[in-house]
Amino acid sequence: MINVLLEEMLSSRDRRLLLLSVVSLAGVFTNKFSFFTRIMRSCGKFLICSTAALATLLRNVSSAVSSPGTPNATAEQLANRQRSFSIGYVVFPGWEPLDVFGPLEILFEMSFYYKMTLSIISKELGPVTTIVPPHIMKEGGPRMDVGFLLGPTITATHTPLNAPALDMLFVPGGEGNVVLAGANDTWVEDFVASRYGQLDYLLSVCTGAASLAKSGVLNGKRATTNKGAWSWVTTFGTNVTWVPSARWTVDGNVWTSSGVAAGLDMTYAFLKSVYGTDDLDPIMNSIEYAPHTNPHWDPFSVVHNVPGADKNRSLVDCTGPVGYN
Q: Which of 142, 210, 265, 271 could staple 233 via S-S, CB 3.0–4.6 A?
């Protein structure tokens, strides 16, 4: 009963504060050799933290009686806050670092407050590098060897054969997309196609939209992609409405973003739709990132001269911290 009351009336931040205080006090009683010194120190911290948490609890009880519900969240968002999401991230040799680590930074911070699990999925288990093998970028062009580049890795925890059930699937871009396409290696789009029917949400960053297009899930849908790779990505798919000026698009449960850093903007908008802003906005301000919040306007569509881009708008699109006008 107490646990239910705490779940309903205390925010996740306050619950963690109270838990840490209790653990700190419990540690006092397990160390008999420095009992009195530790109890004075820990009790002081416990009283301060617990008093703050209790005050929040009383405020929330009073608020719940006078105005039930959370004004900043819909019923669906409140339900999402109570469920656990299984998140998958596809990676391959040559994945783009910010396509992966940008959204993961926000997801990591959100996992302090909401239940999530993460699966990194690649063709083989183990480290997956950002460096692609030597390859030819364009037909008839020179063979490129980029082994001199920095090569951070991420560890694949699953393959397409043993990946768990997923609620959200992120597909990044990177030079590896070009290599896979050139080798006619379709494991990414095969995996996307096989899992799409069971997903709540499918999201691509940058040229990851090429994999979605080749998988067939973008057929009849609106999408966007990296504006610097526009001419390559948009050759894939059937009956895809490519939106040249979009920073990101949403069509049903499919989200696609423009290039690289745009994944941060899309992820903010996506998590806002899933959870609301009560914890999300403070997180964005704590990581000191001001997201671009207009999905319809990507100034880089003009920078990269994308056909059909809106060239009548100012390229100075200033953004500020969320929650501050």
A: 210
